[in-house]
Write a structure and sequence with these properties.
By secondary structure, the protein is an alpha+beta fold. The chain has helices spanning 21-28, 32-38, 69-76, 80-87, and strands at 12-14, 50-52, 57-62, 96-101.
């Protein structure tokens, strides 16, 4: 499925038999962590489940001692609401943070 075309501007994908979440994320050009967190997945997706894939480019970075959600947002220019959607409002050292890459 082409997740980046004009017919699918919101990145919606119905998970089908034989689909692999890792492969779909590679096709969409996003870290698997983005799909897991955005869809609040606690188990592998089931056949027929509708998933939302964020558009844009992302990077994964580890939080360091002293980092706060506000300081990371300021450093990367990411909106606080979007940051909280992917990472929560409280972060801790070593946590994998999903950061949108500004283009």
């Amino acid at each position: 499925m082409d997740l980046q075309n004009e017919k699918n501007p919101f990145g919606l994908c119905r998970f089908c038999r034989g689909d692999d979440l890792s492969a779909l994320c590679r096709e969409a050009g996003i870290p698997e962590l983005a799909a897991v967190r955005l869809n609040r997945l606690v188990r592998p997706p089931e056949e027929g489940e509708l998933l939302l894939f964020p558009t844009g480019r992302f990077a994964v970075r580890s939080a360091e001692a002293g980092d706060t959600a506000a300081s990371v947002c300021a450093a990367c220019g990411m909106d606080g609401a979007e940051f909280a959607l992917f990472n929560g409002t409280e972060i801790f050292p070593g946590q994998e943070l999903l950061i949108r890459i500004k283009e």
